[in-house]
Specification:
It is a single chain. The chain is of the alpha+beta class and about 500 residues long. The protein contains twelve helices and 27 strands. The protein has three domains: about 100 residues, Beta Barrel (OB fold (Dihydrolipoamide Acetyltransferase, E2P)); about 80 residues, RNA polymerase II/Efflux pump adaptor protein, barrel-sandwich hybrid domain (OB fold (Dihydrolipoamide Acetyltransferase, E2P), Beta Barrel); about 220 residues, 2-Layer Sandwich (Chloramphenicol Acetyltransferase), CATH 3.30.559. The strands form seven sheets. Strands 17, 20, 23, 24, 25, 26 and 27 form a seven-stranded mixed sheet that branches. The chain has a four-stranded antiparallel sheet with strand order 1-8-6-3, with no helix packed on it. The chain is elongated, with a radius of gyration of 30 Å. It starts with a strand and ends with a helix. E2 component of the 2-oxoglutarate dehydrogenase (OGDH) complex which catalyzes the second step in the conversion of 2-oxoglutarate to succinyl-CoA and CO(2). Pfam families: 2-oxoacid_dh (PF00198), Biotin_lipoyl (PF00364), E3_binding (PF02817). This is Dihydrolipoyllysine-residue succinyltransferase component of 2-oxoglutarate dehydrogenase complex.
């Protein structure tokens, strides 16, 4: 006898409601076949069978509230349970072997609850191999590829391109590896059974209770649960849609456009990444007391040092020696002296970071991303260069994970690679500082009473004036300038 228990429901979730049983006592079940569905305050959780056998008694009936690890049912193990079904319908044994497999939204990352289906690489009827990429999802921060969980034929696409799906949604159905003829039989039977089956679909008790309390009809709720069942979260979304006040315009109304001009315009929907970039940058301006201070640095010594050792450096470490490692080390050095630039505000507290997770802004075809180099203050030049090169490559290929772009404590943005001579970077919240690098340009400078030509770069530090005073901001830039104009200071920790 094998016990079926409530699985882990998620952080801070301690109980759930048994919404639907898909099997009844005496039914044969296969390993990983869905037995029932649980509803929590946030998500719907399917409970698979841990073994093959026969469903014995159901301990927790539909509508009951259960805690984590509570007993739901018992299963009698053994192949004998499946034998009667096979004997009773030998003709149906072949189609049953080609089981359908659901393609679900993969884990999207901490705090990410939805995504947009951006591209399907396969169409209905296509044969797919296990782990072959089916589609690509776009979240607020990264693109996520969805591989096929099993080999077979793509029988149905549930979430079309452009659709917004939550973290537990079903994307498609694969008819398991029985060849190209399987979809016809698989899709014909459901089509014929749909009218009768539709009458048997029953929403979970938590969803029904929520609809009754909100006074909202079932027609106004879009079900995202199994077979279109409504969940508590679906009801909450429907209520929010009904009661939400009209949103203010995101920007000023467009001026009138002539028909001739309109015919020559192209309207493209903003990607979720671009929408998120716009929102985060505007929120940063609205929430922080942002100020920018400037300085300039003579790059003569850094350029000479790089020229002298770049070939030997690359030969030994397998990485090119660029300017970013110098700036990263200089910033880490300065952050030790001015720790408030490496801190953040949490309510009425200031959180000082005794480490540096350096964000390095990178432009990609889809928008600006900021991969994080963790513990950059404990890294040498070679490790920093390797990390920046690897993160930059993954950013351009759209392969960065959510974890790789979270937790930064300070950011460097290099607009100089695009030719920018001067700019004021915007903070990357909740960070309190961001350094803007710019183009290196030869300029006449007065050195010891003589006018000489030097390679100069303007530096810009944008900072949150709520936590960083002007003195601290200026001191930080001066320390960065000193370290770059005399790189030996970095070695001496001066």
């Amino acid at each position: 006898m094998t016990e079926v228990r409530v699985p882990t429901l998620g952080e801070s979730v301690t109980e759930a409601t048994v919404a639907t049983w898909f099997k009844k006592p005496g039914d044969a079940v296969a390993v990983d076949e869905m037995l029932c569905e649980l509803e929590t305050d946030k998500v719907t959780v399917e409970v698979p069978s841990p073994v093959a056998g026969t469903l014995g008694d159901i301990v927790a009936a539909e509508g009951e509230t259960v805690g984590v690890d509570a007993l739901l049912a018992n299963i009698t193990e053994g192949a004998s349970a499946a034998a009667p079904a096979a004997a009773a319908a030998p003709a149906a044994a072949a189609p049953a072997a080609a089981a359908n497999v659901d393609v679900m939204v993969p884990t999207l990352g901490e705090s990410v609850t939805e995504a947009t289906v951006s591209t399907w690489f396969k169409k209905v009827g296509d044969t797919v191999a296990q782990d072959e990429m089916l589609c690509e999802l776009e979240t607020d921060k990264v693109s996520v590829e969805v591989p096929a969980p099993a080999a077979g034929v793509l029988a149905e696409i549930i979430a079309a391109e452009g659709a917004t799906v939550d973290a537990t949604a079903k994307l498609a159905v694969i008819s398991g590896g029985a060849g190209a003829s399987a979809p016809a039989a698989a899709t014909a039977a459901p089509a014929a059974a749909a009218p009768a089956g539709a009458q048997d679909i029953k929403d979970g008790p938590a969803a029904e209770k929520a609809m009754a309390e909100a006074g909202i009809s079932r027609d106004a709720v879009t079900g995202t649960g199994r077979d279109g069942r409504a969940t508590k979260a679906d009801v909450a979304a429907a209520v929010a849609a009904v009661t939400a006040a009209p949103k203010p315009a995101a920007s000023a109304p467009r001026a009138p456009v002539s028909a001739d001009d309109a015919a020559r315009e192209e309207r493209v929907k903003m990607t979720r990444l671009r929408q998120t970039i716009a929102k985060r940058l505007k929120d940063s301006q609205n929430n922080a007391a942002m100020l920018t201070t400037y300085n300039e640095v003579d790059m003569t010594e850094v350029m000479a040092l790089r020229k002298q050792y770049k070939d030997e450096f690359e030969k030994k470490h397998g990485a090119r020696l660029g300017f970013m490692s110098f700036f990263t080390k200089a910033c880490c050095h300065a952050l030790k002296e001015v720790p408030e630039v490496n801190a953040e505000i949490d309510g009425t507290d200031i959180v000082y970071k005794n480490f540096v997770h350096m964000g390095v802004a990178a432009g990609t075809p889809t928008g600006l991303v900021v991969p994080v180099i963790r513990d950059a203050d404990a890294m040498g030049f070679a490790d920093i260069e390797k990390a920046i090169a690897e993160k930059g490559r993954r950013a351009r290929d759209g392969k960065l994970s959510m974890a790789e772009m979270q937790g930064g404590t300070f950011t460097i943005s290099n607009g100089g690679v695009y030719g920018s001579l001067m700019s004021s970077p915007i903070l990357n919240p909740p960070q309190s500082g961001i350094l803007g690098m710019h183009k290196i340009q030869d300029r006449p400078m007065a050195i010891n009473g003589q006018v000489v030509i030097r390679p100069m770069m303007y530096l810009a530090l944008s900072y949150d004036h709520r936590i960083v005073d002007g003195k601290g901001a200026v001191t930080f830039l001066v320390r960065v300038k000193e370290a770059l104009e005399d790189p030996r200071r970095l070695l001496m920790d001066l």
